[in-house]
Backbone:
């Protein structure tokens, strides 16, 4: 079994990050049996100065993209992309654009315990499909429980300042390395910016052993649209 370390830099309000997470999971399934994919999730807040309680999504998106109508058109496009992937983007349920720092802290805590892949998926699902406010401490504790983690311990962690410094340091490191949009996936020498096809991810995973992975590629969609 060939162990392949993968780094994923993303944010939970980025729809293309959800698509990329889904495609990477599919790629990992396709190589199961010959390659074991070990994923490390790195934080990247698209809105690092967002107030803790978040912001009304309609007001936020209208301000960012110039009009609510343009935001709705972008949402409709992502909903179609999601449908093709088997993902439901229920934007009518999403009322708040959250501060995602707590969510990233939760993932860091989960990764100290082991694989955080299930939690990451549940966070995306909670936000984009269920329309839950993933900036809320109580919601995040519930999502942790949904992912099979101890709710009370997650709530205690989130109630503290644990992980704040680590998240900020990792984000500073990402910015210094040239990361300015997400998703970003590193597999060996292969670096994908955007939601690249499953086949490209499979090829990159298989190439790690021989170190023949392509240097870089840019896929469709980044966090600039979030």
Residues:
């Amino acid at each position: 079994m060939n162990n392949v370390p993968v780094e994923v830099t993303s944010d939970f309000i980025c729809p293309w990050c959800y698509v990329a997470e889904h495609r990477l999971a599919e790629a990992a399934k396709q190589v199961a049996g010959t390659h074991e994919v070990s994923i490390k999730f790195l934080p990247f807040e698209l809105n690092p100065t967002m107030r803790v309680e978040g912001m009304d999504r309609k007001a936020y998106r209208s301000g960012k993209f110039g009009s609510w109508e343009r935001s709705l058109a972008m949402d409709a496009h992502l909903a179609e992309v999601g449908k093709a992937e088997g993902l439901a983007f229920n934007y009518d349920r999403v009322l708040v654009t959250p501060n995602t720092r707590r969510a990233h802290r939760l993932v860091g805590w989960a990764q100290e315990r082991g694989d955080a892949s299930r939690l990451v998926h549940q966070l995306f699902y909670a936000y984009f499909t269920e329309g839950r406010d993933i900036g809320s401490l109580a919601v995040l504790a519930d999502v942790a429980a949904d992912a099979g983690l101890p709710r009370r311990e997650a709530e205690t962690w989130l109630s503290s300042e644990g992980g704040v410094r680590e998240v900020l340091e990792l984000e500073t490191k990402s910015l210094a390395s040239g990361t300015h949009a997400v998703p970003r996936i590193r597999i060996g020498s292969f670096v994908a910016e955007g939601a690249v096809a499953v086949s490209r991810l499979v090829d990159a995973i298989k190439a790690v052993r021989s170190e023949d992975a392509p240097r870089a590629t840019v896929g469709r969609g980044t966090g600039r649209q979030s």
Observations:
- Confidence is low (pLDDT under 50) at residues 212-216.
- The two ends are 38 Å apart (CA to CA).
- The first strand starts at residue 2 and ends at 10.
